[in-house]
Amino acid sequence: MNASWMDIAAGRGGLGVGLAVAGVVVVAVLMGAFWLGVRVKRREPPPPVPEEQPRMPEGGPVREVMENREPDEVPRGRQRLTPHQLPGHGNAGTRTGPSKERPRWDEGSSGSFGSGGPGGR
């Protein structure tokens, strides 16, 4: 019986040593990561001085432009076109629309939700 207790005790001691070694490895990895971060940070350029900051344009701040955009027409043909066959390689272009008013939904129409029923009214 004493031999089996000694084997169990020896196994637990090995487990403790293994956990201690794993802890030392984790601490070493964390210290290495910190050291690497410090080296990378030292290679970065310094923050800009006030003279290097962006300046407002001569004409003052740029204002928002309100306009409606309309999609360019897709070329019509007998065959289906794939994106790489379209102008702009599938990136749909737009142009300024003739109307300056934003389109609004009619009262009682479906809008963006539901089937057009009266809803909560």
Q: How does this model look, in words?
A:
By secondary structure, this protein is mainly alpha-helical. Helices cover 35% and strands 5% of the residues. Strands 1-2 form a two-stranded antiparallel ribbon. The longest helix is centred in the N-terminal third of the chain and has 42 residues, at 2-43. The radius of gyration is 35 Å and the shape is elongated.
* Radius of gyration based on Cα positions: 35 Å
Shape: elongated
The residue-averaged pLDDT reads: 77
How much helical structure, as a percent, in the residues?
Answer: 25-40%
Please count the helical segments. Answer: 1
Order of helices and strands: HEE
- Give me the count of strands: 2
Share in β-strands = under 5%
How is the largest sheet built, in terms of strand order? 1-2
Structural class: mainly alpha
Poorly predicted segments: none
Largest sheet: 2 strands, antiparallel
Distance between the termini: 85 Å
